[in-house]
Amino acid sequence: MEIDNHEESDGSTPRTNENDVSIRRVAPDESGEGLPFAPINWPNPGDTWRWKVGKRVSGSGYFLDRYLYLPKSLCHGGGNPTRRKYGFASKLAVERYIQTSFPGTNLDAFFESFSWKIPAEMSLLANGAVKLKHVPVVPPIPPCAEIEESDSQSDSLCCKARNKLCISLLGEAESPPLAFMNCDICCTEAKFCRDCCCILCSKTINFSYGGYDYIRCEAMTGEGAICGHAAHIDCALRCYMAGTVGGSIGLDSEYYCRRCDARTDLVPHVTRLLQTCESLDSRDNIEKILNIGICILRSSEKTSAKELLKRIEVAVAKLKYGTYLEDIWKQEDVCHHQSTDMEVTTYQEPANGKTCSDLMSASFDYRSESQRLAEDIDQVLHALKTSQESEYKMAEEKLLAQKNYICNLYQQLEKEKSDLARRTSTDPDALLSIVLSRVKQIKREVTNLKEMEEIASGFGKTSRATLKKHFNLEIEE
Q1: What does R_g of the chain's alpha carbons equal in angstroms?
Q2: How far is 121 from 17, CA to CA, in rounded Å?
Q3: Is 197 within 8 Å of 161 (Cβ atoms)?
Q4: Contacts for 302-308 with beta carbons within 8 Å, 24 or more apart?
Q5: Phi-psi region for residue 211, left (φ > 0), alpha (ψ -120 to 50) or beta?
Q6: Cβ neighbours of residue 221 closer than 8 Å, sequence gap 6 or more
């Protein structure tokens, strides 16, 4: 589905449709076809477009999330034979499609043929949730035909991502205790499966070893449903949505779901990882899983997280030292390891009267001490590499987002200049004012982009004002 980051209520809906008292109010998640909320007989007689709404409602009583779907003739190739994305989530997306596929079309006449704004039938609760008065039974919208898969087994697969290892296809998989929430964003994508795809990278997750590398949000979203969206732990860590994160998000060994904004405590997840490792016989797999646990718990202020982190770090040290697997998980070894460290770190100069023989009899093993120092250096280098990768990822996301925002402003300016040239409004002075205001806005955003480009010298050499203003980073003096 083609999604645009533009507001739905842009004020350009035709007056003839908005003020038509015959337009009925619609329930959240309702769908249908044809008038009054979708065109008919366009571009050819008999072509009927389809529509659907989400749950969010504006203060004026109209749905913020409304979708428009092509008629079947265009899905099968009419107008654009290579188009596989058949849904539009904004008015601008519809305009772009029509201008590309049907140049010369009168857009004003097209949008005057139906009502873009859809009034909501609901009552708002004090907490902002939507309470339905009734939900009419509406037949589901049949999806437009996509290009057929060449795989002969595709008809028998239910996973949208064509993942043969999807948990929804496993007969022995347990059914979730609660239904998943209805999702009109990522779950409408043609190849995204909520059961087996990461919400951050859209790639499939790995269910092996108890699903150690992903976390699924099980927060209640109302109406007896849970969020159900999953994310790779590594993706969440890179996006500052998992682990311990400062700033406005404020995570402490937690996971922040991008879809429903809920937080999940990751300490129980790491505890399960540790239990999984105890049943494995591969040192490489054990080390890989334990390192994920360390990344999740590092810098946490929770007592339970700190204790679990110490246990995992001791297990990793023993693993690298070559300890037998069955001896790695013994709790008494943890105390012995800590006491051995104390013998070295608490060593003081011998008091008067101590002989050389007393010093030589002290417990000291240079091999274990050398191993411990090497492990400390490895951890420091790994942390440095991870932080540099995270900083690069943050800079990339912020710079690309600013670039895309400026490009969208240029597109809006082009449209506004076109309206001014054609004198589409009865108040040309107002149009001129809009154009001049847009030009000033673009200049401001270009200046902001130039300031952001200071990051090329590195975060450490970038001014604190720039980091705080454009990257939401506060550096202590």
Answers
A1: 29
A2: 17
A3: yes
A4: 302/252, 302/253, 302/267, 304/267, 305/252, 305/253, 305/267, 305/270, 308/267, 308/270, 308/271, 308/274
A5: left
A6: 181, 227, 260
Q: Read off the DSSP letter of residue 419.
A: H
Q: What digits encode the pLDDT tens for the residues 274-331?
A: 888 888 888 888 999 999 999 999 999 999 999 999 999 999 988 888 888 888 887 6
d(CA 371, CA 283): 18
Percentage of the chain surpassing pLDDT 90? Answer: 22
Checking DSSP bridges between strand 66-69 and strand 87-88, what pairing results, if any? Answer: antiparallel
Which residues are paired to 32 by β-bridges? 51
Q: From 345, 212, 338, 326, select the one nearest 274 (Cα to Cα).
A: 212
95 SS3 class: helix
Distance CA 265, CA 247 (A): 18
The HSE-up count of residue 130 (CA atoms within 13 Å, CB side) is: 21
Interval 211-265: pLDDT, tens: 888 999 988 876 678 888 999 999 999 988 999 988 777 899 999 998 888 899 9
Tell me if 467 sits within 8 A of 454, measured CB to CB: no
Residue 412: which of 75, 12, 3, 1 has the closest Cα? 12
How many other C-beta atoms can be found within 10 angstroms of the C-beta atom of residue 79? Answer: 18
